[in-house]
Structure formats: C-alpha cells, structure tokens
Amino acid sequence: MNDTAARMKKIEDRRKRVTKRMGRVKHKFVVLSGKGGVGKSTVAAYLASALAVKGHLVGLLDTDIHGPSIPRMLGVEGKRVTVAGDTIVPISAGENLKVMSIAFLLRSRGDAVIWRGPLKMGMIEEFLGNVDWGELDYLIIDSPPGTGDEPLSVVQLLPDLDGAVIVATPQEIALSDVEKSITFCRQVNIPVAGVIENMSGYVCPHCNERVDIFKSGGAERLAARMGVPFLGRLPLIPDIVTACDTGRCSYADLEAKGLREALDEIASRLLGGSARRGDGGEAQPGEPEAAGAAADRAGDAGNPGPARRKIALPLDGDTVSAHFGHSPEFAVFDVEDASIADSTRLAAPPHTPGAIPTWLKENGVDVVITGGIGNMAVDMLQSSGIEVVTGAPRGRPEDLVRAYLAGTLETGGNVCDH
C-alpha cells in the first residue's frame, strides 16, 4: 500500500468510527451564533442540563478549541479525562450529563491552543469518534462564534444533524450576523431548528421590573423574515453571570424567576421538532414527507375532526410552473378532509431572496407543489414546517392537488434548482 492509499485508509477508518459512535445518539444539535458575546455557551449549557434534569441522557460537546468555557460553567474545570486504549472517557457533570472539551486536555486555564484548521478538525473528529459517549438521547454541540473551521467540521462529520440552534441578542448589529449563520446552514444543507433571543430584557432582582437594554423582539422578527422557527426568549438576569463564573450554570440550581419557565418552553419546542426517521417513523426537521403522506397522518385517530390545510402551486398561465421563484402568481387550495373546499389565485411578491417562502408561511400554506425550486427556497419552506413536493408535471393545478390528495401524484426530478 502506497503512502496516499495508507492515508486514505486512515481517514476512512476514522470516519467509520465517528459513524459507529454517533449511531448510538438519537438526536444531535449544534449551537451556533453569528458573533461572540451573545451567550451561546451559556444557552448550550443550560439547554443540555435542562434536558438531563428531565431524565434524558445527554452529551455536551464543547468544540471551541481556542476558548473553551463549558467546563468552568458546569463546575468541572480542572478535571482530567481518562483514556483506555484509543477511547476517551468523558467527564460527568451530574446525573445524565456527560461533557467533553479540549479544556480537559490542557494543563491550565491560561494555555493557548495555536492551531490551524486541519488540526482543529482532527480534534473534533476525535471528540465524536473516540469519546465513549455511550447511548445518548441528545448530543448538544457548542461551537465558537462565526461560521469557520469548527462548525464546518461538525457539519461535514455529522451529515445527519437534527439541526442548528442559533443564539442571538436583540440589537441590529448582532442580528446581521445571525442572518449569516442561517445562510451558512442553508449552504451546508442542515435544517435550522430555531432561533433563541438571549438577553431579551433585563429583570431587576429587587423589583422584577423589566428593561429592554438591548431592545426586544428583533430575533423573532428576523426568524419570521428568514422563514425559520423562533424558539423563545431568555431574559438578562445578573444571577446568571455569577452562576456561570462559579460553576453553577445548571438547570437544577436555577432560581432566577422567569428563566426556568423560558427554558422549559424552548426545550419543549425543540423536542417537538426533533423526531427523526427511526423514532416512530416521523420525518426529521427539514425532511419532506412523501406526497400524500401528510393527508394520511392528518386522518389518524390522534387528529380528530376535519383535516384542514392549504396547498399552493406556482403558476405559469393556467398550468403549474417549473420555476417556483419566478412565478407571478400562485394557486392556493383550501383542503378539508382530503377534498378541495375552495381555491383562489394570489399575486406573488417581488422576486427577492426569501420573499416568497416567507409570504407563503404568512398565508398559512402547509404544502407546496412545484415543478422546480431552488435549494435555498426548499430549506426555508421546510424549516417553516411546509412540505415541498418537487418534480410535478405541468398541468392544471386542481388536477395535481387531487392526485396529491389521493396519493397518486407522479413526480420526476427537480427541473429548476435556482
């Protein structure tokens, strides 16, 4: 075996270890932020500990190679991992919670890691493939700010990520960077699980009065504009600063009024969208169901009453268009109990990036049937919970809707990917 073949064999073996190890993890989320200082690691730590307290088996991976902070926040700084052969045993940070960070491999808090991209990717690969995570319900992966080597390595090594949780603060200068994180997710083809607005209002510990120091609601408006879920708001509370500095950044120790309830709401929304194929057969976030499957699901015993949905199709004259983003109008059908109850035509908004998916969501559309559509539009629609059926033949829109509802719609390839 020559040197090149030997190197490729080693790479293949490492990737197989990652696949095998991560195959024992049911759900995987990466926590991102467009810029530093928004409390991303704090959110990741509280989210992981909240899931653990609720009885889930959770792993928390700190992939911030240059500025690891998770161990200090959770009160396990200074601990050292044990190694058995080529297997690393992670640190326990309480019942049901395992943690791994490069901080456990450094001599002191002040040590600097001066690495380029390939070394960082190699370390993240070790964390995923050689750490004995065991069986996990959730793996929460905390990334450094931005869209550089670390989050890109995670995405490349874990193509089956359930999604990205993006942390923002309300002010405009932070939100402009959040938009880049959402664009990053779409470009690397991972779903956006949702946006969290952190530091959303200061709550006085004495009188409980709320003051919007960094404004409020900006992240929710951005999420709506970008067509991605909004998971909730976390207030700015002084006790949280002390908790993180002293190693008590844990849901179990949380006493701050309002924060526990906000975390419960965020965790509930996140878990509600985290079902993957293999867990009861549900579609993973961002994965379309087969044409007609939604109608079958809506008629299940767990969904009493008539199933009402809206189905939209881009038009080219009186037939379905092959170019979703360039259609001047859409046919929108109101469906009740798998039958067409009403229909209308709506003029589409101007053709600018993200405008049509956002407009469809605002109009309550549940399903889009089209001949062709760009990848970014697909991601936006699916992140909003809208099913996308591509490769539909040209024909009368009402005929295609009836075929879809009957489960007989025959589709081909996506005829337009821009």
Short description:
With 418 residues, the protein is of the alpha/beta class. It is built from 13 helices and 18 strands.
How would you portray this structure in words?
A hairpin with a 2-residue loop joins strand 3 and strand 4. 42% of the residues are buried. Helix content is 33%, strand content 21%. The strands form 4 sheets. The chain has an 8-stranded mixed sheet, sandwiched between helices. The chain is of the alpha/beta class and 418 residues long.
Q: What is the C-alpha radius of gyration, as a whole number of Å?
A: 23 Å
CATH class of the largest domain: Alpha Beta
* Tally of alpha and pi helices: 13
- Unreliable segments (pLDDT under 50, ≥5 consecutive)? 275-306
Estimate the strand proportion.
Answer: 15-25%
Q: Indicate the overall shape.
A: globular
List the quaternary state of the chains: single chain
Give the SSE layout.
Blueprint: H1 3-22, E1 25-32, H2 40-53, E2 58-62, H3 70-73, E3 82-84, E4 87-89, E5 91-92, E6 97-101, H4 117-129, E7 136-142, H5 149-157, E8 163-168, H6 172-187, E9 192-197, E10 202-203, E11 210-211, H7 218-226, E12 230-233, H8 238-245, H9 259-272, H10 293-298, E13 308-316, E14 319-320, E15 329-336, E16 339-347, H11 355-362, E17 367-369, H12 375-383, E18 387-389, H13 397-406
Helix pairs in contact: 1-4, 2-9, 4-5, 6-7, 11-12
